[in-house]
Every structure is written in C-alpha cells, then in structure tokens.
Design goal:
Length: about 450
Amino acid sequence: MSPVTGRKATARAPHPLRAEAVRGFAPWAGAAVLLTLGVTLAATADRWQGGWAETAAELHTTLLIAFPLALAAGCWQGGRERRRRTAELWGTTVRPPLTRLLVPALPVALWVSAGYLVTVAAALLATWPYAQGDVPRPVLLPGDTVALGAGALAGHVVGRIVPSRLAAPLLAMAGYLGLGTLAADGGPSVARPLSPAALVQAGEVPVWWQPWAMAAWTAGLACAAALGYAARRRVTAVLPLAAALAAGTLLAQTGDGLWHADPLARRQVCDTSTTPAVCVNARYAGMLPQVRDALSGVTGKLRGVRNLPARWEDREGGSRPDEAQLPMLTPIGWTAVRGRLTDPAEFAWEAVGALRLRGDCPDERLTDRVLRADEVVAHYLAPMPGQQEHDEAYARGDAAHRAELRARRAAAARFAALTGKERRAWLSAYFGARDRCDDKGVPAL
C-alpha cells in the first residue's frame, strides 16, 4: 500500500465517538426513552394538553420513568465488553482508561438526553393549539436534561463495576423506588430538594437558579464517579464532587423556598358586561368567552336582581365577602379538557351553587324554608343535570320521598307563577339573606 493510500484510509476512518453514536447501542437507548415517554404522555394527555404549566409539570414528572431508564441504559452499555469477553483485550490498547470509558458512555448519555428533548418538543407542539393563556415554561429543561445524561454516565460506571447481567434492571428498579420515595408526600423532606424528579404542581415556579443547581448536583456526582473509577489521577474527582456538594447543600438548605406560586395565577381576566361579572384565572384567559356563554342563561335570569355578589372569581386564596367562587377549571382533565368545558350545564349548576352558598352553616340550622328556597333558585337558574331522573327516583320511593317531591314541585310552581317584577324582588330578598344560616330574611313561597 502506498503512503498516499494509507493516509486516505486513515482520513476516512470514523472517529470512535461517531461510530458509537451512529451504529452502537446509544441510538436505541434514545429511541427507548422517546417511545416510553411518548406512550406515557399520550395516555395522560387529557390532564396536561391545554395548559403550559400543566405540560411543564407533566414533562418533569416523566423523569420518574426516564431517569431509571437512563440508569439502566448506561449500565447495560457499561457491561458490554464483559459480555463480549473483550475487556482484557481493550485493556491492552494505548487509550487511557478514562477515554475507554467515555467513548461508549457519552453517546448513550447524549442520545438519552436527545430522546427526552424530542419528547419535550412534541409535547409543547401538542399543547400549543389548545393553550388558553400563559406562555411555554422551559425553565426546568436544563436541570432535567442534564440529570438524564448524568444518570446514563453514572449507570455506565456501575455497569463497569458490577459483573452481572441483572445489574441494569436492578439499578433501574432501585432508581425508580428511590425517586418514588423522595417524591411521595411522606418521603424525607430534607432529601426531596435533591431529587431530580421531585413532584411539581402546575402553577409552581422554581427560583431562577434551581435548574442550574440541579444540573451541577447530578452532573457533578456522575463526573466524580467516572473520574474516580477511570482517571489516572483519581484526585481529579474531587473537583466535580466539590461542585456537586456545593450545589446539593444549596438545594437542601433552601428546601421549600426553591418553589413559589406563579404570579400569573394571582391575576384574573374579567367580563364585566354581566351581573355578576365573570372572572377566570389569567392562566386560562382564553376560556373566558366559553365560561361566559356557559353562564349566560344564569346571568340573563339575574338581570335586574339586587344583592348579588359582584363577581365569580377564580384565584387562589378564597373568595371575598362580595364574591362567589367560580367552579374550578383545574386540574385539567375534569372540568376542562384541551381548552374546552367538558359539561357547560354542570358548570353552570355548580356556579349557581356558589352564588347561594351559606358559608359554614351546619345542616341542623338550615330550616325547611331555607332549603326549599335554595332548591327553587337552583332549579330556576340552572337545573341540576339529571334532575328528571332524580325526581323519577323520588316518585318511586317511599311516602316521605313522594311528599318531599310534591312540596318541591309546588314551591317551583308558585315561583313560576310570579310576575317578572315579583320574581326579581323575591330573588333580591333571597340573595340579601344568602350569608345567613337561619330563615330570617329568606322570602317565603
């Protein structure tokens, strides 16, 4: 072979990292993460596909599955040479031990992280057509992505050390149980801030440095393990270990202070063209028109009525004395799915219940007069879904049930016989006594 031909052959030889990244186990590990998380998110799409905060929280929660999978993938790759019985042969090469570790380990870490990033992109695209307010929330992405890569690298070191084919599945099980224990409500509160998969509620926002501290914590531990195992000067592991301990100490000492309520969740968007006004949380501002339409039958019947609450409100912290609580739009998947109300009639019925709420009145203090007035108002403004089936069941019941049904229908008939002016006056008196437990001020029928 001529020198020129030899140089060409050498120039055409692929870099070992490229060969591992393209033709080895690493692409399959990334595909496994993508497929597993894709199926998991698709199965729970009703509860996140409609809110940016819900999507971010659900993506973060998938680390409970993705992180053990990254550990197992790295561990399986780490035991490859032992399974092939080529470990001693590789030990005779001129490559340093750290290079021999990183060449097969880094592609797995990169592909696992890439699989997660593709999943994130797909979830954000799936949410975009249905989001009703707010903005995308990629703030947790750096910490989550680095944690998966670090998990793959740490798993690779374990695979090099533990001479067993069962090491990968056992490590995945241990990782899942450990993360699950830290994420549980009864888990150790001191260690919970150190978990890369700590549960996050929709509407919670981390302090700006939390994702970067989490990245330093997980990556520092993984790098320290790799250097401590394969570096010629193992003392170099002290540097990433010190960085990890510093980040971990900061996370642990901050504790619950790592998260705070989203300022947007304290704002409301209101339609004041009706009485009461209709307000929704600013995170779901796009749902205001359909919420207003769902309540249009109620607000139309209340036109001209006095003593009403000023508005239906939808914010954290409870209602003020002149407000009524709007039925909860969250958690997504119940009242609202993909930016649409699931049952506008039931939503209106629950909203009427909030209008006539009597606080913490015990049942024994609510007289028949009060209860009958409540039933009449609810039936007039927004009948309970399935009211007809409910009445038919009462009609087939015992004598007491039939008597109660007759009394309810008689009260409804007397209310229906009122003129428009009389009905508005009656409702004004009724809502004037809505915060009382006794029947004083409640108009009779």
